[in-house]
Amino acid sequence: MRRALFTLLALTACKTAPTNPAATSDHAPRPFTAAQIRDATPQGTTWTYEMRKLREPPVRQVTRVVKADASRVTFAVDSFNAGGEALGGTKTSTATWTELEAHATFPAAHTKILDVEVDTPAGRFEAWRYEVRDPDAKVVRIKNFYFAKSRPGAPVLYEQTDDGEIQFRMVLVESN
């Protein structure tokens, strides 16, 4: 019954809901499967995000796929200040495609999924906006994840607000 109610609510909130099933009935449907993310993320793929915390200067983060196979991916990440100076050295990390899929696991009871268009420096995207409310925060905390329907993987825009004020913003600037 609970799953049927959530499905009905999700479908009325969106024109086209994500088709990836949730891990359990307590979680909202994920925007993409591990296979979709893998197929959209070959070796050589690069993304640049601008990240900004409240009252701090922006940081550019460049992420490159340095190795990808059927089960996992390795990323190299470099960060730069507003003047283009490197902030530390290159950091690498490896994850399975299933781990990346699981990053978009949100509690069904606190998540709305909406069909939206979003503008970023990298372009305009048809997207799903996952509006996730944090019931444990001492403020009204909302995390908005904008997943471009045409770009399986990380959101093209992410914003966290506390009591309506943006605390953190990450936006896709460019990608190949």
Topology diagram in text:
Layout: H1 2-13, H2 34-39, E1 46-53, E2 59-68, E3 72-80, E4 91-96, H3 97-102, E5 111-120, E6 123-134, E7 141-148, E8 157-162, E9 165-175
Antiparallel strand pairs: 1-2, 1-9, 2-3, 3-4, 5-6, 6-7, 7-8, 8-9
Give structural notes:
There is one protein chain. With 176 residues, the chain is mainly beta. The chain is 14% helix and 45% strand. The protein is built from three helices and nine strands; from the N terminus they run ααββββαβββββ. The protein has helices at 2-13, 34-39, 97-102, and strands spanning 46-53, 59-68, 72-80, 91-96, 111-120, 123-134, 141-148, 157-162, 165-175. Strands 4-3-2-1-9-8-7-6-5 form a nine-stranded antiparallel beta sheet. It is globular and about 35 Å long. Residues 1-16 have low confidence and may be disordered.
What keywords describe this structure?
9 strands, 176 residues, 45% strand, 9-stranded antiparallel sheet, globular, mainly beta
